[in-house]
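A favour between colleagues. Tell me how you read the following sequence-structure pair.

===
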Amino acid sequence: MPLWSGSAKVVDHAGVISLQMRDHERVVRVDIKHEVLIGGSQLGSQAAVPAFEMNRELIERLASAKYDSSEYVVYANGPVISINYEDWEPVVGKYERAARERLAPTVDDQSSLLEDMRDEVPAISANSKALAAVE
């Protein structure tokens, strides 16, 4: 059974961001370290929470998949799912590649547009000089 968001509240403490998800009445904590989110050991990094918020949906889907696969630890206060680098990197890498592929035509279009504009600038300047000579 997939998990669903239990609370919008996020706890950022000791280099780990935690959120709560639910499986019916069961509360499940999901943890992801700053270093997993931002690619380095930067305790207290201000970049971790924005990176978390930007990727929250993906984190929740990973947590749900791990929960469905019974990849969690049960403590006295409930189950905890840890999203580690091995979980995160393949998925994020796939999304980053897809985003680059989506953006590549846009970048090419922008480059050709810029080249077209550069080609037109001398023509506009030449026309301005011709108009000035006529006046």
In short: The helical segments are 34-38, 48-54, 56-68, 85-134.
